[in-house]
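Can you give me the bound-state structure? Components:
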Amino acid sequence: MAEQLFFFAPIGATIAILFALFQAQKIYKFSEGNDLMKRIAQSVRTGANAYLKRQYTGVALFFAVMVVILAVMAFFGKLTPFVPFAFLTGGFFSGLAGFIGMKVATASNARTAQASSESLNKGLRVAFSSGSVMGFVVVGLGLIDISIWFFLLKYIFYSLDSTYVVNYAREAGMIASDAQIQLISSAMLTFGMGASCMALFARVGGGIFTKAADVGADLVGKVEAGIPEDDPRNPAVIADNVGDNVGDVAGMGADLYESYVVAIVATMALAVSAGYGFGGAAVPMTMASVGILASIIATFFVRTKEDASQKSLLAALRKGTFIASGLIIVASIPVVYYSLDCATYPERFGVYWAIISGLAAGMLIGFFTEYFTSDNYRPTRNLAGTSLTGPATIIIGGLSLGMLSTAVPVIIVAISVMVSFLASGGLEFFQSGAQGSYQTGLYGVAISAVGMLSTLGITLATDAYGPVADNAGGIAEMSHLPSEVRKRTDALDSLGNTTAATGKGYAIGSAALSALALIVAYLDEIKIKKPDFEFKLEISDPRVLIGLMIGVMLPFLFSSLTMSAVGRAAQNIVMEVRRQFREIAGLMEGNADPDYAKCVDLCTRGAQKEMIMPALLGILSPIIVGLMLGPNGVTGMLAGALGSGFVLAIMMANAGGAWDNAKKHIEGGAHGGKGSDPHKAAVVGDTVGDPFKDTSGPAINNFIKLLSMVSIVFAGLILSVWG
Amino acid sequence: MAEQLFFFAPIGATIAILFALFQAQKIYKFSEGNDLMKRIAQSVRTGANAYLKRQYTGVALFFAVMVVILAVMAFFGKLTPFVPFAFLTGGFFSGLAGFIGMKVATASNARTAQASSESLNKGLRVAFSSGSVMGFVVVGLGLIDISIWFFLLKYIFYSLDSTYVVNYAREAGMIASDAQIQLISSAMLTFGMGASCMALFARVGGGIFTKAADVGADLVGKVEAGIPEDDPRNPAVIADNVGDNVGDVAGMGADLYESYVVAIVATMALAVSAGYGFGGAAVPMTMASVGILASIIATFFVRTKEDASQKSLLAALRKGTFIASGLIIVASIPVVYYSLDCATYPERFGVYWAIISGLAAGMLIGFFTEYFTSDNYRPTRNLAGTSLTGPATIIIGGLSLGMLSTAVPVIIVAISVMVSFLASGGLEFFQSGAQGSYQTGLYGVAISAVGMLSTLGITLATDAYGPVADNAGGIAEMSHLPSEVRKRTDALDSLGNTTAATGKGYAIGSAALSALALIVAYLDEIKIKKPDFEFKLEISDPRVLIGLMIGVMLPFLFSSLTMSAVGRAAQNIVMEVRRQFREIAGLMEGNADPDYAKCVDLCTRGAQKEMIMPALLGILSPIIVGLMLGPNGVTGMLAGALGSGFVLAIMMANAGGAWDNAKKHIEGGAHGGKGSDPHKAAVVGDTVGDPFKDTSGPAINNFIKLLSMVSIVFAGLILSVWG
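Here's the bound-state model for the whole set.
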């Protein structure tokens, strides 16, 4: 039974990709509008392509170096021979997902603007279709990558009768199929590292690009030259629009691609020690397929009446997520029941509740993120009020709000972990101390991450829709479309801010759960590599405790590096924009075109240069800590980084979101409105919040997962010193 | 031999208190200057007394409630009967230390101003004498409290032939003297909770008071009314001066009193499991005495030439600390050698290196704190440069600097912990896995905290000297003393900023080390209460991991509460100062006196009201987490809170310090100087930094120790549910 279930995965993946193609082809049928709109859209596309080209060139170099290192290690027996290839494919598919998502997003912006000039519903459909291309490409490619490797390993490299599997089974005293699935999942875990590296580059690079361009455009254009936002005379305006795509589309996509893949594979890796064998490995893959189908069905419910209010727009998007969740709640009953053979082992059905608890946690975190960052609720409204006493108080207020808001997701994740653990065997462990039920409990924790991410197709669609709407607004402004068009794109855009906030909460929550699954997978990996290794994970062990303190510190250091990177990159843009205003005659009068490409190029180069240090921090820390403190220290470090990374990421994302919306609230007329002193104070808050919410905060997600992945891949190296 | 060593403790304590009295009496011989100076000093004193009176009334109520709760628990056998009394004395002595320190500080401010009008050296001597009263009262009272309880327990309640000790020894299978010392130190640990509560109230209350007054005075006086700092027409000016005393003198004193006492007692608690028996318990107490003597000798070297430069002033203060450290390095050789009977057990001498590593770590952290926050070095100078592009960039820059600066102390503490552990037996544990050497290693970690704190007498003296110099400057300004006097007090004050920064680094470092010792003590406490309790401290245990995540989050929540408390309290002062300017006729012209007392009263009331929530968070969290997740969860929580509290406290303290000095750097003429746009941006940074460095940051130290203390005291309650 379980054997056949695996085929659901490639089927689901193929459907996801076909659906994405279908959506993309629908978008291309729409008109891009008048010549000016086409020209602007083309500039954004050129900029985005230039960025991607350079990004991928740099990253390819990095991947080449890493592959050589991994190959050498594999040659000396410190790694499974597949690792270098798995590493490559992980990176390749993640990059491909980002590439496609961005291609479509940059093709949709002018089309959304043009469609909005016809009707709001049409605008929503185009933007949302673009978002869903991203969403389904991510889940489709993720699941394809997993499937390919799974079947290659299962039927060719690690077939049941291969000497490797037979020997391993004998040595470990396992039945052959268990040995097989353990070897497969252990090898597959390593392609997560490729995805992690790619995701970190995409997030950090994109984050630096988008904020450097944003700050540069605002600081010189809006503040110094006094021209409005999205004015075509501003040399950084195209870079700013490109930034929305490289940061919020490609970056977010790569991030969630990684979470998705890692959550599935980490769960598979725990299937054997939980005693579930192949069935246990089948659940996450099948769940992913079910989630894809549910998400596709749900997208058809995302539509709105003509000239609907913002509330009903949001309701339309929400309906999609709810329907997908409802379908998954129903459809996962048979998945769990048959995969785990619950007819024979009724107690295994607890895994179902673990999936549901993950799904519920994702939605709750999304809701509370909105509560803390939307100006429909008290926290952000109060924050707007603190602008009355100047920039210092709104900064303190925002930091305080961000810190306060960390409590809720931590408690939600804590409850979700506990429920998952208890429901899937942990309760028995607490009562009798049976080690077996401890392992099934941990499997439950891992699968809850898969449950949370099962709606990723549609969640990411509602999220990646935002930057398209944002770009559409920019194009409407630059091409002087009638004000009612701008009003419609503004409605779409402002909705995008809300979905972006909930999307970020969701990304953080799923990162925390999958990082947690990775810690457990790391311990398993060490045990596989060296069954007699004696873990001493007591918190009182100085290695664990030191590792923990270093782990807690790392996300702070990482945030510092990325924030100061934005500062330096922005500084260069400011200089360049000033130079263009000074040197290009007739620019201010609209008689000459600015050199958009130069700004795009500067942002790109800045992003490329500045992403090296943060990436090295993520790759080298686990190796250095491992060499100094051994696997105990690494485990402590992972736990510490998970805890502080989770909390810091929420703090930064929510503080940033709240500042942004507090400013918008004031621009909506509160406390004196645009141009008043409180507004100026709120702009300071918003500017501080920019690198918080769009660079450092979201990149922390990838950072903590990268730490785990590197630890797992280099476990063999560390063991050769400490084993 | 070891038995007699204990008598060093009360002797050292008595000498410390006598020395403090001698210093105090020296101060009172100086003149307070002219009538105006006397009147101002009297206002500050009245305000400080009013604050203390209300603070102690509120705290007394809290202590009364706690004593009743503890007494009820003791009655039902969940606690040792001494706990309520021990709790009371811990709080009482801590409060007394704060009271005396503040009495002397408020008596020294005008005297320092007057002495500075004669010579710089005289001014330094008065201010430093005042600081040393605080320093030696803290160590003296701390050691007295420890000694009293030690001898009471040893000779009366838990005498060697008492049935309690005899029974306990039989049940645990220990020799009687080991059982005795274990019971004694376990009982003594609980008075740390009294000290912790008192310290939290003093830090939080003082921190809120001082920043509310500061912000209120600045915002209305300097910005709105346009009168200079420390102008007597400002109704909040006295509250501002009072604030320096209640925050930086009483708060800092109570904080370090707690660290000091807790470090000593936690080490004693680990003596038995390390196999060192009475000798092991004697080392920390004797080390404390030795530290007191060394510090007293060193104070005599703190003097400077007439009209020396700021550098030589700093050198004078540093000389004191260096000499004290040198003396301790030499004197602790015989202490360790004889206490631990190293003639028979030469391997025990490793404990000496643990002490030295703690001492070195304290000095290194102090140095790097100065590096990151003083405008003599690059980080703060660069930060000042970010003010050129406005308030947003200096905020981002400061946060980034603060985050970056966390790496260094974490690594220093990590190395110090590792060295202490390895030197005192841990190396053998790593090689052979012998559990005994694991325990001696942990004892080494605990004693390194005592080593770091052994110079507390003089370190605190150089630290508590700052607010006195600050106040003296205020009095010089308000009483229109000649400008060269103000120049001298400014030199003393600016030096005070440097010593305050290093003092804060030192306080954080020692808090981290003693919190760490407390975690180990907590584990021991559980084992004493229930020898068969099965700890499952693996990080993969969901209870540990959830506890850890909650623990990481708590310092963020705590910071949020304290920061927003400052905001609310400051808001009230702003209103009141505005009201006085509006309603008191002739105030601006200097024809009428403002109502200083009203502002002091408002600050006091605000501080009292706002300190309740943060204190409850500290007391209730371990109990709630304990009831929900058991001792495993509590241990995870303590480790998480230690890690994130340590990092967050450093981040906040250093960011705040750097903003402050970046502003001063600009005021010194850089980037346009006072009144320029960069200066205005820097003022925003400084205002954000105020609650960072003077309220939330330092209070986190107490918060993490309070969490540990409550966990230890309520271990019995938790065990009755989870045991």
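A couple of observations. Chain B touches chain A through 79 residues (CB under 8 Å). Chain B has a mean pLDDT of 88.
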